[in-house]
Amino acid sequence: QVQLVESGGGLVQPGGSLRLSCAASGFTFGNYAMRWYRQAPGKERELVAGISSVGSNTNYADSVKGRFTITRDNDKNTVWLQMNSLKPEDTAVYYCYGGNGFKAYWGQGTQVTVSS
After folding, report:
1. Euclidean distance between CA atoms 55 and 57, whole angstroms
2. Which terminal CB of the chain, N or C, has fewer other CB atoms within 10 Å?
């Protein structure tokens, strides 16, 4: 069955870094654009970063530009989100998403907490 399994979340101090991973299975990963979303308590889910199916195009929310980097390896069926210079306002549950315009899949989420 289709699975998107996130990992790499945790507690980090302001200014620190984390690398989230999303391992995909059960669908043709290389045919899907991938995204990272996040949802903070009491807020709507928001798009953080996206990458095209072959990795040639990326896009970022203004709030994370210059600090976060999305990458993927289609041979490993994995997408990553490198998060640097983390701020308390980056605290949220981070979700992996895969879509091809016809189908869409979500992971279960991983908690990121930025606090001293």
Report:
1. 6
2. N
